[in-house]
Amino acid sequence: MLEYAYSPDPGEQEEISELTAIQRKMFICNKLPLYRLPLLYPLDAGTSYGAVRAALYTVMKAHKTLQVKYEYDPQLRKFYQRYTPLQPEDFSVEPLEIHEAPEAYIRGSSSGIDLAAHYPWRLTFLEWLDQRFLYAEFHHIAVDGLGIRRFEQDFIGRLLEGQEIIPQASLPLSGYRAICELQRHSIAAAEVKDRLLRLPALQPGPAPGAGRLAVRLTAARQEAVQQLALRLKVTKNAVYQGLLEEVLGRMCSGDTYGTIGNWRMRIGNFTEAGCYVRMMPKQIQTEEDAESRIRNIHGSNLQSFRDPGNDSHGMIEYPIVYSYEEDMFRHFRYIPADRMCKFELYIRVYHYQQENGIEVEYSKSKYSDDQIAAIINDLGSRLDDLAEKGDSCEFNRKN
């Protein structure tokens, strides 16, 4: 427990909002080992637990979107989140001695955060051999990638440099209410549902749970992607997405998949640690050459960022989802630990410090390991082709 007094801000009180569409899906899975965001931060020998606790509490108090509890009203049949100001007596970070590497300990944990009973995070000091770690786990319902980056910046700034943390100025849940209003009259488009990209389900027998396979992004592969992006004047994300579309287009039926976006541009919010995730539809580009496909993907992504529109397509359940994550964490280490699948097939490109790769998370009840390995191997081959041929015209081949 913290050892200093707390004075509530004048007028500090509870506030309530409905959950956004994506948050509702997450809350329905409450207590399941899903939507976990576990983070590890190694502690130096000279860093005291008291200093870490104080920094964590200061940052949690500054980010009101993390001081939220969740509930379901059976009479109204609606899901709500309630801003509940954090008090010192409710804040605790205790040490725990473990007997295996912290990554294994986190992945082996099957207990999800109970959103109906607790705040959407838990904090522990892990002690393993002669090492100490801060283990901070968030539920995705409360924070997205940009939100975690902001939390990390504030925590590290407070802990290492004693920076003052500016409290969230807006009403705690105003962003969520704005999103709910935008979604209120949205209806999923039938024409998109009929065109969803799907990988044939070939799993011969029941195999519950999530599978994961990954391809490494070596220095040569990363350099090749960077050089092509510079020459085409596009983002690296567009290059990876273009290569992925080429691979999936040969293996799947349909043409529309989901990408992970957010509402932050639309609602003008880039500083809060909240969950402003939304699903964006992308249609596989049909250009015959790879470079035209990549340019068109870049243009489409840019248009979606500038003008995200309403959320009619975000209400759709996409079987295949893609995301691109770069420099989300500079000090924390993210440990993938979900034991169930968020989507039938989830493909993410990630760049975290020295960890770079393309990971495919898939439903083992639908797809075989061989199917996913074929996607991974094909992606790896395309990346190697790009690394070998560089900017030569041979890369610009037809599918």
UniProtKB/TrEMBL annotation:
One of its GO terms (molecular function) is catalytic activity. Pfam families: Condensation. Residues 14-297 form the Condensation domain. GO terms for biological process: lipid biosynthetic process. InterPro entries: CAT-like_dom_sf (IPR023213), Condensation_dom (IPR001242). This is Condensation domain-containing protein.
